[in-house]
Design goal:
Strand content: 15-25%
Structural class: alpha+beta
Radius of gyration: 11 Å
Strand order of the largest sheet: 1-3-2
Shape: globular
Order of helices and strands: EHEE
């Protein structure tokens, strides 16, 4: 799972496909509501606010 900014979306997609050998599901964090999970405040790869959830 990756929580990434717009700049690192492609990197997250590439890594996910390389590891799991299947395409991920992609969600905009603003559109996702999970009860037992709070999104991190920074991108997996940098300190920018995240925009996407890649799972």
């Amino acid at each position: 799972m990756y929580v990434v900014c717009r700049d690192h979306l492609e990197r997250a997609l590439d890594e996910f496909v390389e590891i799991y050998e299947m395409p991920p599901d992609l969600y905009e964090l603003e559109q996702v509501s999970l009860t037992d999970w709070a999104a991190p405040t920074t991108c997996t790869f940098c300190d920018k606010p995240p925009k996407y959830l890649v799972v």
